[in-house]
Amino acid sequence: MLNGKVALITGAARGIGKTIALELAANGAKIAINDFKLVKEANETVEEIKKLGSDAKAYIADVSQKDQVAQMVSDIEKDFGKIDILINNAGISPKHNGVKKCVFEMDPEEWDKVMQVNLNSAFYTIRYAAPIMMKIGGGRIVNIASMAARLYSPIPGAHYCASKTGIIGLTRVCAGELAPYNIIVNAIAPGRIESEMTSAAGEEANKKILSTIPIGRYGTQQDVAKLIKFLVSDENNYIVGATIDINGGRAIL
Question: Catalytic site residues?
Answer without folding.
Answer: 160
